[in-house]
Specification:
2 domains, 12-stranded mixed beta sheet, alpha+beta, about 300 residues, Aminopeptidase, 12 strands
Length: about 300
């Protein structure tokens, strides 16, 4: 079997469907769709030098890679590559060829420090370590049986706080952008990024094809959003939390639990049966919130890093 690597062809339905199929088989905890893949392709910043690669064997897509320079980080020279191979086609060289192609591309565009998410399995970790990557921070995928879960009872918001949805900000989502920029800047991570481009945020996040504005719940105080839980929805009853965050001045009041609980209740009422989310392994506060809802860890991954010589 000969494996070749090339760029994903956005005009090819077969390519898009093959990319989604591999991702679902290798990473079933995250929902991808042709619409979300195309959405990402159209939003590539010139400074990211982004590529989506596919590994092809006997005419079938068996592996994928997302590759980009981290253009929005204050620290230059950082790159990212995330490689996934169909579990039925591992051990045949597809992953190695995808990694080599991605590394050569990033190095050609000035990247000297490469980050990659790797599933926390002995085989996947050994694959990364053989290629000079060292383990860093961890993260978890969590799942909740939304249909059968005993969700906490709904609570009224505290005095001075009102609940809204993202749909209420359809005419002017900038207040949500400002909250996202503040809350997101405090998220733990290896690569610092700065959310400062409002128009780019609108294109990437506000217009994301999976964003469900009616289920995205927002707590408002003093006339502005102070907490939110972002809801993404897909097919087969899948609901996922894209982000839950609270403005610094309003933390410690239980607002993260409040907005997420209301979103989960309304998602279940709308017929969604599976809830997914992700957590940095060091984010104890959010892990505690998700355990309170009944989420259980279903898989983990590790952020690996390699310094280029």
């Amino acid at each position: 079997m000969t494996v070749t690597v090339r760029d994903l062809r956005p005009e090819s339905t077969a390519d898009i469907e093959g990319f989604v199929r591999v991702r679902h088989r290798a990473l079933p905890y995250v929902f991808f769709s042709p619409a979300s893949v195309l959405h990402g392709l159209t939003l590539s910043h010139p400074g990211a030098h982004a590529r989506k690669l596919v590994a092809v064997a006997d005419g079938e897509i068996v592996g994928t890679a997302q590759v980009n320079v981290v253009h929005d980080s204050p620290e230059p020279g950082q790159g990212a590559l995330n490689v996934y191979v169909d579990p039925a086609h591992t051990g045949r060289g597809a992953g190695a060829l995808l990694v080599r192609t991605a590394e050569e591309h990033l190095a050609a565009h000035g990247a000297t420090k490469l980050f990659a998410w790797v599933l926390d399995t002995p085989g996947d970790r050994a694959f990364a370590e053989r290629r000079g990557y060292r383990a860093g921070r961890g993260a978890h995928f969590l799942r909740l049986d939304l249909a059968g879960a005993a969700l906490p009872p709904l609570q009224d918001p505290p005095p001075g706080v009102r609940l809204r949805t993202a749909a209420d900000f359809a005419d002017d989502p900038r207040p949500l952008f400002e909250l996202d920029a503040e809350a997101g800047s405090d998220e733990p991570g290896d690569v610092a990024t700065e959310l400062s481009d409002y128009e780019a945020w609108v294109d990437e996040y506000w217009r994301h094809p999976h964003l469900n504005r009616e289920l995205t719940t927002v707590a408002v105080a003093d006339g502005r959003p102070v907490a939110f839980s972002v809801a993404h929805t897909g097919t087969a009853g899948r609901y996922s939390t894209g982000m839950t965050g609270t403005a610094r001045a309003h933390r410690g009041r239980g607002l993260a639990k409040l907005v997420k609980n209301h979103s989960l209740h309304r998602a279940r009422a709308a017929g969604y049966t599976q809830a997914h989310t992700g957590n940095d392994a060091g984010n104890d506060a959010m892990l505690a919130v998700n355990r309170w809802f009944g989420y259980e860890i279903c898989a983990s991954e590790v952020r690996y890093v390699r310094e280029l010589g």
